[in-house]
Structure formats: structure tokens, C-alpha cells
Specification:
single chain; about 350 residues; mainly beta; Immunoglobulin-like; about 50% strand; elongated
Length: about 350
């Protein structure tokens, strides 16, 4: 059966901390010497309309004896105590979220403020691997092959102005190699990276920002390899290759001969095409993507036709087989490669 590789899309937003005149306020009117409280968001870049969590942390005060209140655009949306996590739903792209957190501890009130501009950012993967012409889906990620990753930003200012993606800067990193920079530059919205080995993963991240660095967003995506496969289809003289049905069980020959084609999926694209070999009942018959078979003589029978694919560069392989039904009695022979 043909496989459709879904692409998962991700959207993010920009978060920054607005400095206040002081990092903390005290109800008595005195100011704390140091700011012992911090807050975190998870995920750190939540998507528009996505729920994210806000948590309060401290290394110097006992939060189990504190309380806090969370305000969104001046409206109280949550209260809590200790290390309790508060869930907040992000607004849409092009809006602004003013979040204030008031932490009360032993008569002192610490204030943390965050301004969030929701920004859309999607990452789309395009495996550079084998698939038939006009295939509606995606081929799998070939082991040791290549993958193109495209960043699709939807950056809008507070007044709704759309920022041209070609004017944004992009920084691509390989997270698994100490955040090594792979590529960067204005308009560099896509990158081609090598795929990991079979059964392994690779994480690629991108940081996108406008020239003023006011609107910033980041997102990462994990790349996993797929096991290559091969499917066999009937090649009808009038209809052409019948991609709508892969042959896996039995196929009845009703005419004097029949043609078949083996189509590799998920093998890496290179200068050397994968080697396709045909077998009849386990015996090698010929090489190449196409084969034509013709029963000779009288009789009926069942034969097993299989195709094996190997990629010399990556040592990837796959095979598929089905049974051919023919004739009307128990005699007859085969002629291949017509």
C-alpha cells in the first residue's frame, strides 16, 4: 500500500520581558535588594490559540508560603500558591498579551511582567527520496538521505501589518551537535540537511526575526527515518500503471501476457538509481523496473513473483511479492522478459 507521510505543522510566538523601574515591589514601600522570583512558560514559544503553562520559581524564598495572582490585559485570570502551574490560552496572531504576575511573600509583593506577540511559524519537511511521478503523498525519509526543511512564518505586527518572509532573518541549527549553526541569513527560509541513520532521529531548529529583532520566534522539528519499501503494480496496456492498487496477494492473468512494474519508495535520490531484481519462486530472472510474463502451454498454476530493491550507497533494501494465477489445468510453462 502507498504510504502518506504526514507533516506536522508548528506555530510559535515571541516572548520578551519588559523591564520595569524595579524588579520587585514591596507593599510597605521598601524595595527588595534582589529579585528572587522568576517565571517560566512551557512551551516557551506557545502557538497562537495554544494553551501554555506559567510557573513561578525561586531559589531564595519558600514559595510554599507565598501566593500569586496572574493578570492578562488587566484582568485577573488565575490565582495560586507555591509552585502551582497556571494554564493560559494564547490569543491569535497579530494581537498583544500583557501578562502581569504578582507574588506575595511575607508582606512583600514581587511583580513580573511579560508582553507576548503571538507569531505564526510552521516547519514543513520535504524528503528528497524516491516516489512515483504525480504521487500525491510524500515519500519517507531515506536513511542517510537528505531532507529539505522550509520555514513558513506568519509574522504580524500589533496593527495587523504582515511582515514579508523574504525580509526576515533565519538561523538554522543542529540541536544534536551542540546547536551548531547550519545556515543563516536574510530570506534563508529553507535548508537541506542530511537525514539520520535508520532508527535514529535528528532535531533541527530555526530562529526567525525581523531586522529590528522586535519580532522573534523559534521552532524545532525532529527528523526520523523510515524503512524504505517497494510496491509492485500491474502495467495495463490501455490504462497504464495502475497505481491505485499495489499487488500483495494474488493476480489472475486473463490475457496471453501481463506486465508489472516495481516502484521504490523512500530510497535516497542519487546519481545511481537503486538496483531492482526480479525473482520467480526465488530464482533470479532479470533486473530493471519492468517485467513482462507470459504462460506457455496449457494448464493452470500458481507462481510467486517478487521484486528486490537495493541501494548501493546506503545499503538500504526492500522487497515485495505476490502470486500469479494462470491457466486452466496443471501444466504449462513461463516465458519472462518479453
Amino acid at each position: 500500500m502507498q504510504r502518506l507521510v504526514l507533516t506536522v505543522l508548528f506555530i510559535s510566538l515571541f516572548v520578551f520581558i519588559v523591564p520595569a523601574k524595579s524588579n520587585a515591589q514591596i507593599t510597605s514601600g521598601t524595595i527588595a535588594q534582589a529579585d528572587p522570583v522568576s517565571i517560566t512558560l512551557s512551551p516557551s514559544s506557545p502557538a497562537p490559540y495554544e494553551s501554555f503553562s506559567l510557573s513561578v520559581f525561586s531559589t531564595t524564598i519558600d514559595l510554599s508560603k507565598s501566593t500569586f495572582s496572574v493578570f492578562l490585559n488587566g484582568i485577573k485570570i488565575a490565582t495560586g500558591s507555591g509552585n502551582k502551574t497556571v494554564s493560559i490560552k494564547a490569543t491569535g496572531a497579530g494581537t498583544t498579551m500583557h501578562i502581569s504576575v504578582y507574588i506575595n511573600f511575607k508582606g512583600e509583593t514581587y511583580i513580573k511582567r511579560i508582553i507576548i506577540h503571538p507569531l505564526g511559524l510552521a516547519l514543513v519537511t520535504e524528503p528528497l527520496s524516491s516516489a512515483p511521478t504525480l504521487y500525491k503523498g510524500k515519500a519517507g525519509v531515506a536513511p542517510s538521505g537528505e531532507v529539505r526543511i522550509v520555514a513558513v512564518p506568519d509574522f504580524r505586527t500589533a496593527n495587523g501589518t504582515y511582515l514579508n518572509p523574504n525580509n526576515l532573518s533565519y538561523v538554522w541549527r543542529d540541536v544534536g551537535t551542540q546547536n551548531r549553526i547550519l545556515d543563516s541569513g536574510i530570506g534563508h527560509s529553507s535548508i537541506i540537511v542530511s537525514a539520520p541513520l535508520l532508527y535514529r532521529t535528528k532535531t533541527i531548529s530555526v530562529l526567525v526575526q525581523d531586522p529590528s529583532s522586535k519580532y522573534v520566534s523559534s521552532r524545532s522539528i525532529k527528523i526520523t527515518t523510515d524503512t524504505p519499501s517497494v510496491y509492485i503494480y500491474a502495467d495495463d496496456p490501455l490504462m497504464g500503471i495502475l497505481y491505485s492498487h499495489a499487488l500483495t496477494d494474488a493476480y489472475q492473468i486473463s490475457n496471453s501476457d501481463a506486465s508489472f512494474v516495481a516502484v521504490p519508495y523512500g530510497f535516497t535520490k542519487s546519481n545511481t538509481a537503486p538496483l531492482i531484481t526480479w525473482f520467480l519462486n526465488g530464482s533470479k530472472m532479470q533486473t530493471g523496473a519492468h517485467i513482462t510474463v507470459r504462460p506457455e502451454g496449457s494448464g493452470e498454476g500458481v507462481e510467486t513473483l517478487s521484486a528486490s530493491v537495493k541501494a548501493p550507497q546506503t545499503y538500504s533494501s526492500a522487497s515485495s511479492q505476490f502470486k500469479i494465477l494462470f491457466g486452466s489445468d496443471k501444466s504449462g510453462s513461463w516465458l519472462f522478459g518479453l
